[in-house]
Amino acid sequence: EVQLVESGGGLVQAGGSLRLSCAHSGFTADDYAIGWFRQAPGKEREGVSCISLSDGATYYADSVKGRFTISSDSAKNTVYLQMNSLKPEDTAVYYCAAEFRSYWPISLNIDEYEYWGQGTHVTVSS
What we know:
By secondary structure, this protein is mainly β. The chain has no helices and eleven strands.
């Protein structure tokens, strides 16, 4: 059974940092990429960043480039999203999701992600 479990969300002031974690299990890592998505109240879910668990290739949305960093620890089966210089507009529920290799090259096309976590809340106060 594929499982994705996010953690690390919380309340932070603008300019602060948070690190989200996505613990994954139940699939062969080399066959998947992990993506981070977010959904703010009243808005559609949007892609933030993704990483191939096979070769470590990464991709970022323009809105987070230079502020967020995605990484993977294969020994812990965990993908991290380090978020720095947070802004109030980063407030959202953050989800991690898994994309099978048949859809590669990796992207933030939400339709290509088959498995999803339950989400973790991030609130950035001004």
